[in-house]
């Protein structure tokens, strides 16, 4: 009798285990089916016009890159890719607009490292960079370059640095530099240089690299720290003189121009990423689809040759790798901003 009861209990337990296993397999299959359906649902992106919101005015490096991508994406996928410049607050205005957009993959943000700097510099963003936007693809890195007009009295960077030493910022004889905006990588690059050398260059923020370049060429400001890609045509034309690049080593775009570190500022380096971001609630399969679509364009030899010729160092990695870069930069620039006392009200 006892053996019979044990047998029945064993059979019941075995049956329960089988049912549990079957249920688990059913859940796994159901999850897999939902994931497969989700991927299939977004496989035909884009389904209409796509707006690429650029956080700076026309003429700068971010805008130039966005327009090259828009042309190639249109050619490859047949839909319109419209570049919309929403400048102001070092990119916060454009970022806020995309953060509030529908998460359907048809409104994307084209931003640079300013996105990761702004939370530590601005007291109010209007969005949460860790939640409201998500990285799609890191397109490329580009160094910034310190330039002055061709007729400038400073033949090299060290002479311009010396002109700002031991003086009070705001005095007439202290060099003034234009940046692409408050809290931009170019602003941070110059602040780092001031801190490292004891110079006191006066900061004059602009609403993008394009306007900054116009004023330094006109002599309104003495110097500018801008993306190398935006300055290159003017350097080649002789309107600007390049003094140094902010990358750790010389740039392939400007091989004759020394890096700041090479000139004796130990440990100095700041490269700038350019990438695409989407509203934070965009489905993961759609993020992967957009990443793959843009990556296919970037893999075209003609596109690679063009972007490298413009001074961009093409990035690699998946969408989650770019999101990791953004999170690391949010932390890194928070430390740098506190150390340098950078704050914009």
Question: What keyword list fits this structure?
Answer:
single chain, about 350 residues, alpha/beta, D-Maltodextrin-Binding Protein, domain 2, 2 domains, 10-stranded mixed β-sheet, 11 helices, about 45% helix, globular, disordered N terminus, Bug_dom1, signal
Question: In words, what does this structure look like?
Answer:
Residues 1-22 form the signal peptide. This is Tripartite tricarboxylate transporter substrate binding protein. Belongs to the UPF0065 (bug) family. InterPro entries: BUG, Bug_dom1. Keywords: Signal. 46% of the residues lie in helices and 18% in strands. Strands 1, 2, 3, 4, 5, 6, 7, 8, 9 and 10 form a ten-stranded mixed sheet that branches. The chain has two domains: 50-142 and 272-340, 3-Layer(aba) Sandwich (D-Maltodextrin-Binding Protein, domain 2); 143-263, Periplasmic binding protein-like II (D-Maltodextrin-Binding Protein, domain 2), CATH 3.40.190. The chain is built from eleven helices and ten strands. Helix 2 packs across helix 9 (284-298) and helix 4 (114-121) runs parallel beside helix 11. It has 345 residues and is of the alpha/beta class. It is globular. The chain has helices spanning 2-41, 61-77, 92-99, 114-121, 157-163, 185-197, 209-218, 228-237, 284-298, 301-309, 319-340, and strands at residues 50-54, 81-85, 107-112, 133-149, 176-179, 202-205, 223-227, 240-245, 271-279, 313-314. Strand 1, helix 2 and strand 2 (81-85) form a beta-alpha-beta unit.
């Amino acid at each position: 009798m006892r053996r019979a009861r044990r047998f029945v209990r064993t059979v019941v337990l075995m049956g329960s285990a089988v049912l549990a296993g079957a249920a688990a397999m059913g859940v796994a299959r159901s999850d897999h089916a939902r994931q497969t359906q989700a991927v299939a649902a977004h496989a035909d992106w884009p389904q209409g016009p796509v707006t690429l919101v650029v956080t700076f005015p026309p003429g700068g490096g971010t805008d130039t890159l966005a327009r090259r991508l828009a042309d190639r994406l249109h050619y490859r996928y047949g839909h319109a890719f419209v570049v919309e410049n929403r400048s102001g607050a070092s990119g916060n205005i454009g970022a806020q607009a995309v953060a509030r957009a529908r998460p359907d993959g048809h409104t994307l943000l084209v931003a640079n490292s300013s996105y990761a700097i702004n939370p530590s510099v601005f007291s109010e963003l209007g969005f949460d960079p860790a939640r409201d936007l998500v990285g799609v693809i890191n397109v490329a890195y580009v160094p910034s370059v310190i330039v002055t007009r061709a007729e400038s009295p400073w033949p090299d960077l060290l002479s311009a640095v010396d002109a700002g030493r031991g003086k009070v910022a705001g005095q007439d004889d202290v060099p003034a530099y234009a940046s692409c905006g408050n809290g931009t990588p170019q602003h941070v690059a110059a602040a780092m240089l001031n801190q490292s050398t004891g110079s006191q260059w006066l900061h004059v923020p602009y609403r993008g690299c394009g306007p900054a370049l116009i004023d330094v060429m006109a002599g309104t400001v003495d110097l500018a720290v801008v993306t190398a890609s935006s300055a290159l045509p003017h350097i080649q034309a002789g309107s600007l003189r390049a003094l140094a690049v902010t990358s750790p080593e010389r740039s392939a775009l400007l091989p004759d121009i020394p890096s700041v570190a090479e000139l004796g500022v130990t440990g100095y380096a700041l490269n700038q990423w350019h990438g695409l971001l989407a509203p934070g609630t965009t489905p993961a399969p759609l993020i992967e689809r957009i990443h793959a679509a843009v990556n296919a364009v970037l893999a075209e030899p003609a596109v690679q040759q063009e972007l490298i010729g413009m001074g961009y160092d093409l990035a690699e990695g998946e969408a989650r790798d770019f999101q990791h870069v953004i999170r690391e930069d949010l932390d890194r620039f928070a430390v740098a901003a506190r150390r340098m006392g950078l704050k914009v009200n």
